Write the structure tokens for this entry.
Amino acid sequence: MRQIAFFALILTLASCGGANRLDRGPGEGWPRASGPISDACLASDRKARSPALCGCIQAVANQTLSASEQRRAVRFYRDPHEAQEVRTSQRPADQRFWTAYRAYADRAEAVCR
């Protein structure tokens, strides 16, 4: 039974593809993906942005944030003050989102540096 479950897992992982696939770019060894956070990152005025870094950040987002959480996080690139507003909010929904966002940001920092 374990072997069947293992092979089912392998087949499921092998069938994954597209924007959520973690491609490693040549030389950098980082996972890469495309999506809304990668697009916002590339469009930002941050000096450290690059296709490799933004793709890595998106790959981590795909692993840790839902699609709606990613759309919400994109707004932080356009308006960094909004992140501060969410961080200090007392609304339970904002607190849940901030907890998920911090976990994502911590993981992206560890994986993509």
Remarks:
- Strands lie at 23-24, 31-32.
- The chain is about 70% helix and 5% strand.
- Confidence is low (pLDDT under 50) at residues 1-27.
- The first strand starts at residue 23 and ends at 24.
